[in-house]
From TrEMBL:
Residues 11-65 form the HTH lacI-type domain. InterPro entries: HTH_LacI, LacI/GalR-like_sensor, Lambda_DNA-bd_dom_sf, Peripla_BP_I. PANTHER family: HTH-TYPE TRANSCRIPTIONAL REGULATOR GALS, LACI-RELATED TRANSCRIPTIONAL REPRESSOR. CDD domains: HTH_LacI, PBP1_LacI_sugar_binding-like. The keyword Transcription applies. This is LacI family transcriptional regulator. It comes from Actinoplanes lutulentus. It comes from the Bacteria. It holds the Pfam family Peripla_BP_3. Keywords: DNA-binding, Transcription, Transcription regulation.
Amino acid sequence: MIPNVQSRKRPTIRDVAREAGVSYATVSRVLNGRDWVSPEAVRAVNDAITRTGYTTNQHARSLATGRSGSIAFLLTEPQHLLFEDPNFSVLLRGVAQALSDRELTLILMIASTPEERNRTITFLSGGHVDGVLLVSPHSGDPLLKQLVQAEVPIVACGQVLGFEDTISSVSADDWGGARSAVEHLLAAGCRRIATITGPQDTFGGVFRLRGYKDALTAAGIEVDPALIVHGDWSRESGAAGMRTLLDRLPDVDAVFAASDAMASATLPVLREHGRDVPGDVRIVGFDDSGLAATTEPPLTTVRHPLERISEEMVRLLTDVIAGRTPLSITVPTSLVIRSSSPA
């Protein structure tokens, strides 16, 4: 004999309203995050949701609100960097948590090739996401203009050169962080201070180089182009940059590298050339990624507050989606002293 099993009916908004002792409209306003609901009513509705086991019907909610409940995390770098560069993984983890706290879904997208860019624009223009968190934008990337034309709400990690007035952003104080790194090296008595820059089509690359130059100028030291080599944030470019500097100027006594990955790669190159760190050459990086504390010696570096940046990006994007005016936020950095350049 087959037992008679009755399936339990899925709780509805009306069930929640009855349990909470409020109207259907009040429950709807609470679920949609409206402002004109009393704190007491919000607590009653949330308690009733817990007791009844009510869950949102996302499809119905999307039809009613015109929103998907999804946010794209869009990386404009080759996909291998998502796993190789610790900054991207920290940022992704922080964004995922901030979106989860707001009951929003994360969609990871990568657009570094023309084919990926075309697929990305087609998807984003189709209303599949409510907004885009843009990571590592490069000036001159045709994707930027296409995103703006698609009228998709956007917040970028770092200001987007050429789109400062149209794309909201959250940035670290790249200029101030770089300047503090060079001032630290100057205070230690270094005078032949080199830099390995980030890409010069990114906000971080441009302003970390500017901070380096301004710190030297303020100290009365002429900026020597021979002490500047360009990298792309990667270890490979850091190692190549260090070799170039030693070939040009063997008496270099300090290097400010615009990322920890590049800074870490200078260490084995200096050892190969018989140079002691920090005795002969001091090294300062930028990021304070997990890598910085594991090198030998551990890296003095500028802390890039990615956890706060990820939270601010999500908060700002919800404001942009709600129709507020685009704006830019700058988050302060701090210098973390370790053995590669002690105080």
